[in-house]
């Protein structure tokens, strides 16, 4: 359906790219002594977090329209199967948008000092972090879909819950961008945090989805 | 016609309650429905009719009590039960950006139907939409949507069909077509229909149930019901005129 309408990919992709441009404008007067690579990872993950919220808010639109969510709930499959299907779909969209955004990000923020780490680090941390965003986000989007002001509810629930993931992801991504002594250790410490968050939150989402969707 | 089919119990509802916060949408609902019966459920807005259907179709879990459909518990055997039920709602439950055929194919896959292509084609022919099978559902009229919705609900050959105000928003011609489709499949299924139209509901049913404030006010077989008395009971109980 998304292949036909391209609503999510278009809106998420444009939003993410425009955010990069806005960041560039905001940092354009920072002076030559300022190294944007120091904060680039934080900016990148903020852009992905807000972009994911845009997509997550739309991820259940097709199901909401004409009551299709109820039709899915009537199918003879366990509810967690529906959760994982939606979460994997959201993950794929997020990864596509990230793949489009990273070259722009590198062009705007990594030109001065260059990229310090190994190239495999960025795809690894992006994939691991995105799994957490898609998993928790899918659960929260389902919770908020029938509430008044669902966009606001999703944001209020999602940002605090994403805090540990963002800390770990920014730490690992900063290590990947800057490189240097101790960066590999810092990268793996961050990856450990992301992996732990993903495991705990995905298990919680798996356990809670039946209750959330049937409430 | 229904008497010949009434050998087993299709629905077994015991002290069924569903609360939303402090509001009791269903309050100790209790009844049995024989296999092959046609139950019409009446009641004013907020009586708990849609909640009853949602619980019986496993969409919403009950707060207390039990309910069995085709002998399967709505909580313990939910996945197996869903293979035996179909829902036709006032909402078509179809993806507007997919064609009629794509919608049915998608739901056929969800139900794991073998030879889905043939079954989809057969149903599109039976609801007279084969000529529009490649058209996006968002281009369909209300009556066409409802016919396609019936095809979706019948894909997996359910034993019990739930109809949640299926005539809502239909023009007289579309209502006639829906009447014809229900008549075609009447002998093969047990039906549970929510209706605000007392005459239509009583005409179709073998059993009738009035819900008010989540409680069963009246439940009986049609042969024990006198229409005017039933309407008076409905009016007096829910304090509303008959539409």
Keywords:
heterodimer, A: 215 residues, globular, B: alpha/beta, Rossmann fold, six-stranded mixed beta sheet, 8 helices, disordered N terminus
Judged by helices, strands and strand pairing, the structural class of chain A is mainly alpha
What separation lies between the terminal Cα atoms of chain A?
Answer: 27 Å
Helical element count of chain B? 8
Strand content of chain B: 25-35%
**Overall tally of domains of chain A:** 1
Report the radius of gyration of chain A as a whole number of Å.
18 Å
Q: Using DSSP, what is the number of strands of chain A?
A: 0
- Biggest sheet strand line-up of chain B: 6-7-8-3-9-10
CATH architectural name of the domain at 1-49 and 61-79 and 193-201 and 210-243 in chain B: 3-Layer(aba) Sandwich
3D shape of chain A: globular
- The fourth-level CATH homologous superfamily of the domain at 1-49 and 61-79 and 193-201 and 210-243 in chain B is P-loop containing nucleotide triphosphate hydrolases
Task: Average the pLDDT over all residues of chain A and give the rounded result.
Answer: 88
Protein chain pair with the most extensive contact, residues per chain: A-B, 19 and 26 residues
Alpha-carbon distance between the termini of chain B? 28 Å
> Which spans of chain B of ≥5 residues are poorly predicted at pLDDT below 50?
1-6
């Amino acid at each position: 359906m998304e292949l036909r309408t391209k609503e999510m990919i278009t809106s998420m992709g444009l939003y993410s790219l425009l955010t990069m441009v806005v960041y560039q404008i905001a940092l354009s007067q920072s002076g030559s002594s300022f190294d944007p690579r120091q904060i680039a990872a934080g900016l990148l993950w903020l852009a992905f977090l807000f972009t994911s919220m845009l997509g997550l808010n739309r991820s259940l639109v097709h199901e909401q329209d004409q009551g299709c969510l109820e039709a899915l709930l009537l199918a003879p499959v366990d509810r967690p199967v529906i959760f994982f299907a939606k979460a994997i779909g959201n993950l794929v969209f997020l990864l596509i948008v990230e793949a489009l955004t990273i070259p722009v990000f590198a062009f705007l923020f990594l030109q001065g000092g260059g990229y310090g780490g190994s190239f495999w680090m960025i795809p690894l941390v992006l994939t691991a972090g995105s799994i957490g965003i898609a998993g928790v986000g899918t659960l929260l989007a389902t919770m908020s879909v029938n509430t008044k002001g669902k966009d606001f509810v999703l944001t209020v629930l999602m940002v605090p819950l994403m805090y540990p993931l963002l800390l770990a992801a920014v730490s690992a991504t900063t290590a990947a961008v800057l490189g240097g002594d101790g960066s590999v250790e810092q990268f793996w410490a961050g990856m450990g945090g992301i992996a732990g968050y993903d495991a705990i939150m995905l298990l919680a989402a798996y356990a809670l989805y039946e209750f959330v969707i049937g409430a | 016609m229904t008497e010949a089919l009434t050998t087993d119990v299709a629905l077994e509802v015991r002290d069924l309650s569903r609360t939303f916060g402090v509001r009791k949408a269903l309050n100790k609902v209790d009844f049995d429905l024989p296999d092959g019966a046609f139950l019409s459920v009446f009641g004013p807005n907020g009586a708990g009719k849609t909640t009853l259907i949602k619980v019986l179709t496993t969409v919403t879990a009950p707060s207390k009590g039990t309910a069995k459909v085709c002998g399967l518990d709505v909580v313990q055997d939910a996945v197996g039960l869903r293979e035996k039920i179909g829902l036709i709602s006032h909402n078509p439950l179809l993806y507007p950006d997919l064609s009629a055929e794509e919608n049915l194919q998608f739901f056929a896959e969800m139900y794991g139907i073998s030879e889905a292509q043939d079954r989809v084609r057969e149903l599109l022919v039976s609801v007279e939409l084969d000529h529009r099978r490649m058209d996006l559902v968002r281009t369909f009229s209300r009556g066409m949507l409802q016919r396609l919705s019936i095809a979706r609900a019948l894909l997996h050959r359910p034993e019990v069909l739930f109809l949640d105000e299926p005539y809502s928003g239909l023009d007289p011609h579309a209502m006639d077509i829906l009447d014809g489709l229900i008549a075609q499949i009447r002998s093969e299924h047990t039906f549970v229909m929510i209706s605000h139209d007392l005459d239509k509901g009583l005409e179709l049913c073998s059993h009738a149930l009035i819900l008010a404030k989540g409680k069963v006010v009246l439940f009986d077989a049609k042969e024990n019901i006198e229409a005017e008395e039933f309407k008076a009971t409905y009016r007096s109980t829910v304090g509303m005129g008959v539409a």
